[in-house]
Amino acid sequence: MDMLSVIAQKPARVTRIIYGANVNYTFARQHLRTLMKRGVLVEETTRTKQGNLERRIYSLTQRGIDVVTKYQEIRRD
User: Fold this and answer.
1) Contact 2/21 with Cβ under 8 angstroms?
2) Domain locations in the chain?
3) What does the mean pLDDT of the chain come to?
4) CB 2 within 8 A of CB 23
5) Residue-by-residue DSSP string for 8-54
6) Residues of the chain with pLDDT > 70: what percent?
7) At what angle do helices 2-9 and 14-21 cross, to 10 degrees?
8) pLDDT of 4-35, one tens digit each?
9) Rounded to an integer, what distance in angstroms lies between the CA atom of residue 14 and that of residue 29?
10) In angstroms, rounded to a whole number, what is the distance separating the alpha carbons of residues 74 and 77?
11) How would you label 18-32 residue by residue, b for 16+ Cβ within 10 Å and e otherwise?
12) 55: Cβ contacts below 8 Å, ≥ 6 apart
């Protein structure tokens, strides 16, 4: 949920997710793949302005937004 909460703030690259959720790279990559398979996240690949580097940016799908919203409702109660 910490990883989803970081991405819910704004789409993020792996590094931002790692630092925001306080997890290691291996854990993050494994769970990002799982979350994408379950339809909670989507991965977009972009290029830098120089056009030579690809960057992966993760954002929530509608299903992911619903999961984060429900989780926040449960925590409030």
Assistant:
1) yes
2) 2-76
3) 93
4) yes
5) HHS-B-HHHHHHHHT--HHHHHHHHHHHHHTTSEEEEEEE-TTS--E
6) 100
7) 120
8) 999 999 999 999 999 999 999 999 999 999 99
9) 8
10) 5
11) beebebeeeebeebb
12) 13, 45, 46, 47, 48
40 burial via Cβ count (<10 Å: 0-12, 13-18, 19+): buried
User: For the domain with range 2-76, which CATH number is right: 2.60.40.10, 3.20.20.70, 1.10.10.10, 3.40.50.2300?
Assistant: 1.10.10.10
Which pair of structure tokens corresponds to residue 10? 């704004």
Cβ atoms of residues 54 and 46 within 8 Å: yes
